[in-house]
Design brief:
Structural class: alpha+beta
Strand order of the largest sheet: 1-2-3-4-5-6
Largest sheet: 6 strands, mixed
Oligomer: single chain
Helix content: 10-25%
Shape: globular
Radius of gyration: 22 Å
């Protein structure tokens, strides 16, 4: 069953669903690309790992996929045989850590493995102010300074958008930065009611662009995960504007 919305489904943006969607959306895009670019190019799934210190007050409320790994209780490490135990004067704890893995795609030349295109689906940690946003901007600058193309897909209304001069107002967006045209980029502004577009994925000249149908990828993830059965409890987060909220309610599937 496809998503009932013509474009982005606002209920997918909530924190408890987004991590699952992000992890499934990137492979769905890769399947589309591989059918078009093989065997000259290969499409590899890489991941950016972010580690955050978590206050003790937040540990119990963390998502299961970001749970803290600890040794089994009641099992103390044994001292090595023949080594005298020396008691330390203090026993503080290492801080708990939240490990977030964000997959993205790289298209590379099959023969020499040179990087051709980077494709990224932005996550909340990319967009919210802080260290992760700074790291993502550094990665963006590194790609921009080289010969690879960059594609940024933003399907999150929350948090400030990535910096772009003369950026039109929009809820979602796709940016395609072709190496030969920088600093000018191609930009698709997408509003809540707009259909998700088919976007070009640049390759090496003289090869033409590949294409990714974002709506088809979203529908595949929506269907595979069975989102229809569990994502519509409550309202979208972040909240929609009143006129858009009323419009969105008309698309919700009947409760089963």
């Amino acid at each position: 069953m496809p998503s009932p919305f013509p474009g982005m489904n606002p209920w997918i943006e909530q924190e408890g669903i987004w991590v699952d969607f992000h992890a499934a959306f990137i492979p769905a895009i890769r399947r589309q690309l591989a059918q078009q670019v093989l065997p000259k190019y290969i499409v590899l799934m890489e991941e950016q790992v972010s580690i955050h210190e978590v206050p003790a007050s937040r540990v119990r409320s963390m998502r299961p996929d970001l749970a803290i790994t600890r040794p089994e209780r009641g099992r103390e490490p044994r001292a090595a045989v023949g080594v005298a135990e020396i008691e330390a004067p203090f026993h503080p704890r290492l801080p708990d850590e939240d490990v977030e893995r964000q997959p993205y795609l790289e298209i590379r030349d099959r023969e020499n493995r040179e990087l051709v295109t980077v494709i990224e689906l932005l996550s909340p940690s990319n967009k919210r102010p802080g260290e992760d946003r700074w790291k993502d901007l550094e990665k963006r600058r590194a790609v921009r300074g080289g010969t690879a193309h960059l594609v940024e897909i933003d399907l999150l209304r929350g948090y400030p958008p990535m910096p772009l001069d003369d950026r039109p107002e929009c809820a979602y967006s796709v940016l395609v930065s072709r190496a030969e045209r920088r600093p000018v980029v191609d930009f698709w502004p997408i509003d809540v009611r707009d259909r998700l577009p088919v976007v070009p994925i640049p390759l090496r000249s003289p090869d033409g662009d590949a294409r990714v149908d974002l709506r088809a990828a979203l529908d595949q993830v929506y269907d595979d995960a069975g989102y229809v059965h569990f994502i519509y409890q409550g309202n979208p987060s972040p909240a929609l504007a009143p006129e858009d909220a009323e419009w969105a309610e008309s698309f919700l599937p009947a409760a089963s």
